[in-house]
């Protein structure tokens, strides 16, 4: 293993719900859960403090449901419940790997999770526990990207790690356009001006206001998450003028 020191000591890891379905059409892939839990364990064992936000798109997509006639508020709350399901599944996978974690939800569901309380989350991290934030922000009309940026600011994370199925940010969809160009680094303003589909504008603005860099990388490559924490070039970094 590389002796490169850890650059980011506290991170907010954003996992997409889509990644959780693996090769399935929907639902949760046990194989992916096991893989990502092992990757998180490797990073956690290096001493990095970590919060995690997961999307719910593998189970339910609120915006898509709203576009098909479902009430937007109802659709968004349903999507928040999907994120809690993913959070509980990841907690179980981490437990199987010997990693202690806690699920905190912005929606109060005492039977399965703690209610989000910032000071309690920080105490968990100081004790070496990973905190998985479920239930979005607890409010409709906000994405899990915005949740990630908000929680990152609240826990004073050194960086947001946006784990995707692509090895960085491209000028266009690399799966549809073979001439798409990959960026090694971008400013927050670059992303907004170029209308790159990295995170929504609210999430980007929150990250920019709090000067939290965003590292976008492929979660499916082993040790990418550890190498990202070491500041190695594994994808695209988004930040201010002086990257």
Structure description:
The chain is α/β, with parallel strands linked by helices and 243 residues long. The protein has one domain (10-239): Carbamate kinase, CATH 3.40.1160.10. Helices cover 37% and strands 19% of the residues. It is built from nine helices and eleven strands. It has helices at 17-20, 30-44, 62-67, 72-96, 118-126, 144-154, 188-193, 201-209, 224-229; strands at residues 10-15, 49-54, 101-105, 114-115, 130-134, 159-164, 169-170, 182-183, 185-187, 214-218, 235-239. The protein has a nine-stranded mixed beta sheet, with helices on both faces. A two-stranded antiparallel ribbon has the order 7-8. α2 (30-44) packs across α4. The chain is globular. The chain starts with 9 loop residues before the first strand and ends with a strand. The relative contact order is 0.16. The model has no long low-confidence stretch (mean pLDDT 93).
Characterize the biggest β-sheet: 9 strands, mixed
* Assembly state: single chain
CATH superfamily: Acetylglutamate kinase-like
Regarding CATH, which class? Alpha Beta
Q: Could you give the order of strands across the largest sheet?
A: 4-3-5-2-1-6-10-11-9
Count all strands and give the number: 11
How many helices? The count is: 9
Portion of residues in beta strands equals 15-25%
> How many angstroms does the end-to-end distance come to?
26 Å
CA-based gyration radius: 17 Å
Helix content: 25-40%
Q: What structural category characterises the helix and strand content?
A: alpha/beta
Number of domain units? 1
Following the backbone from N to C, one meets helices and strands in this order, namely EHHEHHEEHEHEEEEHHEHE
* pLDDT < 50 stretches: none
Specify the CATH architecture: 3-Layer(aba) Sandwich
Mean pLDDT: 93
CATH topology: Carbamate kinase
Shape: globular
């Amino acid at each position: 293993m590389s002796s490169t020191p850890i650059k980011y000591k506290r991170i907010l890891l954003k996992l997409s719900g889509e990644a959780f379905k693996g090769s399935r059409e929907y639902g949760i892939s046990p194989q992916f859960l096991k893989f990502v839990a092992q990757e998180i364990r490797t990073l956690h064992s290096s001493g990095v403090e970590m919060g995690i936000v997961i999307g719910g798109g593998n189970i339910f997509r609120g915006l898509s449901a709203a576009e098909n006639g479902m009430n937007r508020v109802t659709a968004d709350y349903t999507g928040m419940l999907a994120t809690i399901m993913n959070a509980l599944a990841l907690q179980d996978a981490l437990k199987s790997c010997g990693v202690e974690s806690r699920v905190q939800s912005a929606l109060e569901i005492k039977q399965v999770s703690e209610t989000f309380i910032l000071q309690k989350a920080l105490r968990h991290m100081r004790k070496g526990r990973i905190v998985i934030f479920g239930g979005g922000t607890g409010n409709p009309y906000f994405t899990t990207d915005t949740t990630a940026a908000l929680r990152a600011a609240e826990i004073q994370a050194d960086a947001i790690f946006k784990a995707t199925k692509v090895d960085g940010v491209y000028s266009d969809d690399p799966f549809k356009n073979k001439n798409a160009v990959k960026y090694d680094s971008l400013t927050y303003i670059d992303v907004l001006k170029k209308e790159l589909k990295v995170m929504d504008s609210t999430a980007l603005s929150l990250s920019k206001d709090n000067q939290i860099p965003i590292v976008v990388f492929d979660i499916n490559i082993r040790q990418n998450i550890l190498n990202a924490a070491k500041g190695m070039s594994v994808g695209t970094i988004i930040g201010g003028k002086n990257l």
